[in-house]
């Protein structure tokens, strides 16, 4: 082992990287061969770090080992000396898997011998600047410079990207001059009310994301070259894709069956409720398909009968549709149980799987020793697998394992295990069930999926994904990974949410303090706000952890335009207007910024109620609302009231005010206007704060005693005697309102005809210094 580490370090790998490489037996063997071949070409000379890095990158991405010596020669002789050339070389080899390579064609495709001079770069950039000159002069530095870079890279394919970028920057500066104060002003806010921005950012850097064209619609951008994903039928052009002698025939058949259509799938396990992280996956899978005129399946990965329940199947579909998506078809992994079993038998017959008697605890972790049953005869494994199918072994006694090594070094993953639990859909028909590693890629293949989009933790399973499809000689889709979306101040683990429910900390999976999608809906979060949030986060390779207030900002943006206004009083103080001539009806606009969107009528009588906090008996500096010496205006009513008498209860607490009113037109404009209600409805209001006290309640460094010890005692406040104006009397469950000066609220399912219940969705975005 030490010798191999030394060999790998001799080409520039650090010790840690060399040791990690050794964990992958196939990669180590191929890299060693490449090094030996390179040394044969160099003679006594050593392999420098640049060439060594190129060799390592080539070996990790090359699946057709027959081309190893060919590419090694090109790298060592410096004919291929950039990452761009290497990618082109690998693409060429994938697209010519069974042909004798034509070196002239190969050299042309890979830019071998091409030298791009500074003069050529300058001339090409000058032409591009000239093409966009008018728009550049008009928009100056607000122009999307990514367009210039994109066209320059197309025109100068083999040029050094940094030199091209410097030339573009220099010529733009020469044309526009230095940035002015106007150029440095922030751009006007543009809200991305489309889920599809997320997909645009999948393969872009943070800087490139910031430069995405805003002039075109997001759909237009997605239909173009914004994503570096393969086109249907061109799977072989994807880095790491394995090409077999039958690949091209399988791809041809795939295109005949799909017509070149983009196909994605959203494959949740029906053993829990979807959460905010799933919203990102839903948006990306359904959004990418929709933007490219494709289809997306909702496929339940129902291969573990011990944890699946009908309520989860129903809730998952409901949440997908709530977010605005309609699946092309709803499928189940269990639909394919018989076919998956038949394929497992075929896998054994081909010598790629075996029945193993090692117990579960023996298979945990990495670097486990090979199974003593790995080389058992095919006929013996077939017989034992049939006995597994017939229920002749106990749970955990035997498994079916695949003969392959995963990217993380894990050896021979399990394909089938025994479970004597009736399945939700198939009952007692089966007692053996396939694992994710076996099922997922095969269901993708069966459904002719083109882009299998999944989160980053499944990257270690990509090699098994390709291996299994190819081992069975089936059409092989392409797996693409992206980073998970996490939020602070919450937990989304199914196991931990169950603990919160069982201990009575939360009511159920839809408790509005959680970040499950059902909980967010109950709290009043509009689906478009969740989609907008996912869009702004983007689909990056790195895991994303966001603050809840960023999601809440998206909620406010949507509700500000969609939630009609009403008036509600959480802590009522009775006010009697002694000189009001007569009761009246007051018309209140649903959206004060756009009164054309409608209005409603509320009563206005001698008795009204205001917030206790809107009156102070003793005047304080900076306080602008009602005091015995300071009048205040009543919103929408057209009156200003002045205190005449303060009435207190036996404890000395103010319980009522007697005031007089005057028309707003007849008196000096007051310093403030407050909301009020008259002849109101009584209601219950639930106010929510963060469920946890710390940002990362699952982190032992922050919360040593565990997440259950970190509960915020003030996460829920229930006000049982709030008052709301009668305009909300006919509201339906989940209807949303802005209670003026209070916040955004949604009608809870607990509401009855006798008593309405409102959940505070989010507070108003107000100046925190405002009194």
TrEMBL record:
EC number of the protein: 6.1.1.18
InterPro entries named among the record's database cross-references: aa-tRNA-synth_I_CS, Gln-tRNA-synth, Gln-tRNA-synth_Ib_RNA-bd_2, Gln-tRNA-synth_Ib_RNA-bd_N, Gln-tRNA-synth_Ib_RNA-bd_N_1, Gln-tRNA-synth_Ib_RNA-bd_N_2, Gln/Glu-tRNA_Ligase, Glu/Gln-tRNA-synth
Record's keyword annotation contains Protein biosynthesis: yes
Entry keyword Thylakoid: no
Family membership noted in the UniProt record: Belongs to the class-I aminoacyl-tRNA synthetase family.
Subunit-level organization: Monomer. Part of a multisubunit complex that groups tRNA ligases for Arg (RARS1), Asp (DARS1), Gln (QARS1), Ile (IARS1), Leu (LARS1), Lys (KARS1), Met (MARS1) the bifunctional ligase for Glu and Pro (EPRS1) and the auxiliary subunits AIMP1/p43, AIMP2/p38 and EEF1E1/p18. Interacts with RARS1. Part of a complex composed of RARS1, QARS1 and AIMP1.
Name the record gives this protein: Glutamine--tRNA ligase
Species per Swiss-Prot/TrEMBL record: Cyprinus carpio
Source taxonomy: Eukaryota, Metazoa, Chordata, Craniata, Vertebrata
